Amino acid sequence: MMMRRVEHEKTVYAVLAERGFIEQVTDEGKLRELLRGKVTCYIGFDPTASSFHVGNLVPIMSLAHMQKNGHRPIALVGGGTGLVGDPSGKDQMRQIMTYEEICQNAETQKKQFSQFLDFSEGRALLLNNADWLTKLNYIDFLRDIGVHFSVNRMLATESIKIRLETGLSFIEFNYQLLQAYDFWFLFKNHNCLIQMGGSDQWGNIVAGIDLIRRLEGREAYGITFPLIMTADGKKMGKTEKGAVWLDPQRTSPYEYYQFWINTDDRDVERFLALFTFLPMEEVEEYGKLKGADIRKAKEILAFEATKIIHGEEGAEKARNTSKALFSKEEGDEEAIPTTTLPAERFIEGIPAFKLFETASLCASGSEARRLIEQGGAYINDKRVDKFDLLIKLDDFEGDGILLRAGKKKFHRIKLLFKRSQYVPLTAT
User: Fold this and answer.
1) Residue 25 and residue 64: Cα distance in Å, rounded?
2) Residue 423 predicted with pLDDT over 80
3) Is the pLDDT of residue 93 over 50?
4) Structural domains of the chain, count
5) Which of 73, 82, 84, 402 allows an S-S link to 63, with CB 3.0 to 4.6 Å?
6) Tally of CB atoms within 10 A around 342
């Protein structure tokens, strides 16, 4: 069920609350009052991947809502903190990346921020904490900043307590000091009064607020977001194989659209509120749809979410291709995920289960075998009845074949050149 609508209040706090963004806040009364004016806020983003994924959308969307309601957001790329690694929410130490790798990822992420935020004329700021953290003198930092931190209090932080069970490196233990320093730096240099982040960042945010109070004698505030789980208990956008990326080179617009249209019925209204900019009146109307009618709400969710990342043209293309595939009409083949393989590989033939694995419709050969044995694999809309069935050139229609796993996952295999142009060698 959606959160009760907040009436008679038009601040961004009400917007975030009714759309399901808020889990915890510091001093709610003062924060509500503060947000009646114009405020600068920030969120830090981990640059350990070259693209954001759907698990990053809640914080990014929250910054977009802040800007739409007249506030100034700061998107902070963690080029400096990324060199240390945030232990929050992790059960083991992250792999240490080089400065060059982190800077390259940070540059790629900057482009994705512009799909959500308007950086013109100072309406939003895009900063990299490497610009100040990498210039710190360690001894001065310990004397000026470290003196304000209690080890006992840091050990009581939930994220630290969890990691102590599996092992916490000294470099990770320093992370909270660096994030607190970021908040103080942005407060001092950009009048940033609010830090926002995931629920696992609560201890780090509170540490920054405390540091500002100790150094400046002034108040700052924090907001955390809930961990978004799907109705079947899975975490959104885990950074492991199968993540749904915002980069079209890693997840195509069609695949991105399919991710959203396959949303569990129980999640549709909640995801419309979190991951689109549709007015809540519309969201709640779609939330009333039941049974077969909820397909319409899923199509709206998929289209609106895809439009934000890939533009209206990309969303239209993905929607049309999706409808065409499911109605068996002609669609835009270019929008379907495609793998190109040399024609000569199909002279002797490729076993069907291997082809489904190659197309990433199955994570492994054994999974592909199970899919075929259970009757869930199709080639050119014909069920595959044997896992070791050899797929040869004769199976191609023109220069391609269409694979389908279950009802909703499609992938096209194309020859390196058209079959009609390929003449196999014969013995002489």
Assistant:
1) 19
2) no
3) no
4) 3
5) 73
6) 11
Asked if the structure places residue 59 within a domain, the reply is yes
- Position of tokens 């058209």? 418
- Greatest alpha-carbon pair distance for the chain in Å reads 91
Cα 340 from Cα 331, distance rounded (Å) = 19
For residues 171 and 74, membership in a common domain is answered with: yes
User: What's the domain range around 270?
Assistant: 253-331
* pLDDT tens-digit series, residues 248-276: 988 899 989 989 998 999 999 999 999 99
CA 353 centroid distance within chain: 30
In this structure, the answer to whether residues 138 and 285 fall within a common structural domain is no
**List of residues 6+ apart from 410 with CB closer than 8 A:** 325, 336, 337, 402, 403, 404
Determine the length of the chain. 428
CA 416 vs. chain centroid, Å, equals 33
Same domain, 193 and 271: no
Question: Phi, psi (5° rounding) for residue 177?
Answer: -65, -40
- Cα distances (Å, whole numbers) of residue 331 to 5, 163, 316, 327, 374: 41, 50, 12, 10, 28
For 186, residues 6+ apart whose C-beta sits below 8 A from its C-beta are 40, 42, 74, 76, 127, 192
Residue whose tokens read 């350990």:
48
- CA 391, distance to chain mean position in Å, is 36
Edge-to-edge strand list for the sheet holding 72-77: 24-25, 221-225, 192-198, 40-45, 72-77, 125-128
Give the pairing of strands 40-45 and 192-198: parallel
Type of residue numbered 327: S
DSSP string, 336-354: S-EEEE-TTHHHH-EEHHH
| Tokens found for residue 237 | 């956008």
Q: What is the pLDDT of residue 44?
A: 94
